[in-house]
Every structure is written in structure tokens, then in C-alpha cells.
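Exercise 3.2. Students should predict the tertiary structure of the chain below and write it as C-alpha cells, then compare their answer with the key that follows.

Predict this chain's 3D structure.
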Amino acid sequence: MEKSVEGLFTQEVLNQFLTRFELESRVKKLGDFENYVFEVYRNDQTLVLRITHSSHRNQDEIESELDWMNYLNEHGVHCPKVFLSKKGQLIESLEAADGSCFYACLYTKAEGFPVKINSEQYNNELFYAWGRVTGHMHAVTKEYQPKKGMKLRPFWHEEELIDVKAYFPDEPEIINNTNELLEELRELPQTKDNFGLIHTDIHSGNFFYDGKNVHVFDFDDCSYHWFVSDIAIPLYYSILNGMQNADELEKTEFACNFLTYFIEGYKECNTMPENWEEHLPLFLKLRDITLYSVFQKKIAPEDRNERLNQMINEIQQRIIQNETIVKIK
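Answer key:
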């Protein structure tokens, strides 16, 4: 979390939201990278309270995210159900000391358990279930219509993180290669069967697994995008976080095996987007660009460890050389 926001988020802010959602005072902090996320409790039920600063999302964006989550939940997708506050609101807002706002929402905690990339559960059965829930999300969303008057979630090209000129004004090769990629993406067709509202960030840190089904959470980055992006991201982070010391052949072999089972699961619930294999490398490149910007925005140079600096340098070189994180046969 940016230091400017950390100074505004006080215990009183947290206590106010606990009261508004009728929650117990005891909490367990789960995360604070882009949002403050807490495990909270009410009537012996374990829930999740997320608090967002207005510098990250506005109330309209959060409302449309929660509306889609409830739609998915109602249509059998394994994702959280959103609860109302004591006043019957999906979102509670609170003005901060500087006039900005914090927004809070409450939802069920996902079933299952986290899966570490190098654990024995990170296997073909998981990849299949991962693909199945992704395909299910895409299939049911084809019929999703936001409530009348509701502001739509952002479209892919509205993502501030792809404005690399703002983050890296002195890196012309990064700027040029990013612009070329964006132009290539703008030429891709957009149909009901390949484009729509997607999660955009279904890596292993954003779901739990119960041994059979994957339960997805953290819909904070959902946007209108190509379905292939939701296929590229799981592969991207599996390579990034699980194969740091592997050679190119090992990465390629893993990618082919991963996609075999992921796609098999996906096809259980949805047809594959047309030309997905041809388009997949484009979205692997796009994730390199957005992650490169995230590190610049969220983590000051003095707070980066050796491993993170190495990762940033590797991403930088891939963007400059116009390469993907893994080469797929």
C-alpha cells in the first residue's frame, strides 16, 4: 500500500466499518497490497472485509464488481457471495482525514485451502479444476447484463498500468514495444464468444482449492477483456513464481502440460475462444508490461529485495526483446 494511504488508515476507520457491518472487534489481517483485507467474524461465521481507498477504486467501480460477483455466485460459479451492511448497503463509505474516502464491502470467505506452487497439490487435477472454473465464469457471463444505470467496469485499454510513458518516461524501448503490442491487440476481434467481463487475475494466490473445485476470489481487477487473458494469467504466474531456476525447455514442457489439463477443464464448461493459441503470447506480453508498472507504482526502490530486483530486471529485458515468459510449442 502507498505510504500516503497508510497514514490515513487508522484503527478508528477499521472500527467504524466493523460496526456498520455488525462484526466482532477481533480481526485477522490478510493483506494490504492494493486493498486492506481482513478475516472477520459474525455469529460464528468467518467472513472477509475489504477496505479500499478512493485512490485505487471509486464507488461505482466497486459496485459493478460486486454486482458481477453476486451474479456469478447465483449462477453456480465458486466465488464469494456479497453481504449487505446494517443499513442495507453493498458498500459503506467513510471520509478520511484528507477528504478522500475509504470504501468497505463484506463477503463470504472462499471454501478450501491455499495451494502453494511447489506443493504436491499443484498438479494436473488442480490445473483441470482451474480451467473448469475459468470456463464456467466465461460461459455464464455471456448472458450477464449489469443493472440499469450501473457504471460498467473498465475496458482493457482503460487500465492505467499500460500507460508506461507515465511510469517509465526514460525507457523508449519499453514505450515503443508497449505501443506496438497495444496496436496489435486493438486489431483483435471482439465477439460474445471471445470477449467480455473477466476476472483478469486468476493466479494461485487468488483462489482456494477443496481438492475438487477451485474457489476464486479477489475480483478487484475485473474488466472487459479477451477471455484468452484469463487463460494466459494462470500460466504466466505459474512460470513466474514456480520456475525461477528452470531452463527454457523445462518451462516449455511445464506450459504444454499445464495447458493440456487447464484447457480440458475449460472445455467442460465453455468452448475455446477462436484462435486462442495464436493470441495467447500477446497476453503473456501484456502481463509483463502491467506487472512492470505495478512494481514501479507500489514498491519503492528502497523497499525491493534482491529477488524482486532480479524479477523486475528479467521482465524489463523480456519487454525490450519482445519475448514472452515462456515459449509454447
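Discussion points: DSSP finds ten helices and ten strands in the chain. The longest strand covers residues 45-53.
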